[in-house]
Specification:
There is one protein chain. Helix content is 27%, strand content 18%. It is α/β, with parallel strands linked by helices and 239 residues long. Helix 2 packs parallel to helix 3. The radius of gyration is 17 Å and the shape is globular. The relative contact order is 0.17.
Length: 239
């Protein structure tokens, strides 16, 4: 488990740095084992990817997309992460619906988590999944995926995909990858921008608070924190 790769850049070059990491990681994975499994998060990430992905040179048919977490709502619901990616990315880049591993929104959270894990096993077998790249989000409370501060799921070490029916952030019914799966990834990337994230970045890097995002520590893989200067404003090297 190495030290995280912390890269602080000007806002004007943030997207370019993000693109370089995604492109090089994806193409390296395709060259090594034919596919690139990418984990997607919700929130503002999709808008950033909408700008970046069309600029990437890669063999798109070799990409597979999974969700780091997902809300149990219909795909046409504005809260559906898959629905948002489908609307924003399909047609923008040469990918189709078959490349996404999707939750079954007709199931309960418990049933959907079991079903999603079965889908992952159809791709990875019975070995703990090793995703090539997880694109992780960071909430103002330090949550990532649907792993929230002081929630019992932070200690889940058997399930690959866990249900959550009491999410403190709506909608309450979700599924999420668990920390053993996240920390088995080849690459984890937090791309965080804006002054609104400066306080939580300080809590993670300076105050060393025990927050879910701070528990992302790939065992054998790389951990990238890409920050713009606004998000890094409270770090000693910037302030």
């Amino acid at each position: 488990m190495g030290e995280p790769i912390l890269d602080i850049v000007e806002e004007s070059s943030f997207s370019d740095h993000f693109k370089i990491i995604i492109e090089s990681t994806a193409n390296d994975s395709i060259n090594k084992h034919g596919l690139c499994y990418v984990g997607l998060s919700g929130g503002s990430l999709v808008n950033l990817l909408e700008q970046i992905l069309p600029k990437i040179e890669t063999n798109w048919k070799n990409w597979k997309f999974i969700f780091c977490d997902e809300r149990i709502v219909s795909f046409d619901d504005p809260e559906s992460t898959y629905g948002l990616y489908k609307k924003k990315l399909i047609g923008l880049i040469p990918i189709d619906e078959s490349q996404f591993i999707k939750v079954n929104p007709k199931l309960s959270a418990n049933e959907a988590a079991i079903d999603y894990e079965k889908q992952l096993r159809s791709h990875f077998g019975d070995n703990l999944p090793q995703f090539d790249l997880l694109l992780l989000g960071l909430g103002p409370d330090g949550h990532t995926c649907s792993l929230f501060p002081q929630h019992p799921l932070l200690n889940e070490n058997k399930l690959w995909v866990a249900p959550i029916s009491d999410s403190p952030k709506p909608p309450p019914s979700r599924i999420t990858l668990t920390l053993p799966v996240i920390n088995n990834a080849r690459n984890c990337l937090f791309a965080i921008s804006g002054k609104g994230k400066a306080d939580i970045i300080k809590k993670i890097f300076v105050d060393k608070e025990d927050l879910p995002a701070g528990r992302v520590k790939p065992i054998l893989g790389k951990l990238y924190w890409l920050l713009d200067t606004a998000a890094a404003a409270h770090l000693p090297s910037v302030s």
